[in-house]
Design brief:
Number of strands: 5
Distance between the termini: 21 Å
CATH superfamily: HUPs
Strand order of the largest sheet: 3-2-1-4-5
Shape: globular
Order of helices and strands: EHEHEHEHHE
Strand content: 25-35%
CATH topology: Rossmann fold
Helix content: 40-55%
Number of helices: 5
CATH architecture: 3-Layer(aba) Sandwich
CATH class: Alpha Beta
Largest sheet: 5 strands, parallel
Length: about 140
């Protein structure tokens, strides 16, 4: 059984794969937290431009709204499988925020996808995932 799992997501295809695999573990996860980081480096949102109105200067608010809607839907999916689930949305550098939450929240494991959102990260192991694997104190499960 997994006691307390952290699942950082960027809503990429790789994150969907992690989510689908975690859903198959129903009954084996005691507590799950979905973590979305609003990256303070705006250029990382090129894959979400179809959901964000650029002419509106409240981009962070729109990103938050998009993330929140997706996370609420994911929480429903996990809770339907009997997994106690919550979500967090924070702002910062994804690696820093993932490691901070993992430590402060006393998680036993972190599930990450193998590839990130950016074009370069799609070719190799996602740079954030790779750094989480190297730097996290917790067990990290890499989902392919």
């Amino acid at each position: 059984m997994f006691s307390k799992v952290l699942f950082p997501t960027d809503f990429s295809d790789s994150s969907e794969i992690v989510k689908n695999n975690l859903l198959k573990l129903d009954g084996t996860i005691k507590s799950l937290t979905l973590l979305a980081v609003i990256d303070s480096r705006l250029f990382s949102y090129t894959t979400m431009l179809d959901e964000i109105e650029i002419d509106n200067l409240n981009i962070q608010g729109q990103i938050y709204s998009v993330y929140e809607e997706k996370l609420k839907n994911w929480v429903k999916e996990f809770e339907a499988k009997g997994t106690k689930t919550r979500y967090l949305i924070v702002e910062g550098i994804p690696l820093d925020e993932i490691l901070r939450e993992a430590d402060e929240g006393n998680y036993t494991s972190i599930f990450v996808g193998e590839k990130g959102q950016t074009a370069g990260e799609r070719l190799v192991l996602g740079s954030t995932a790779e750094k989480v694997i190297r730097k996290a104190k917790q067990t990290v499960v890499l989902v392919k």
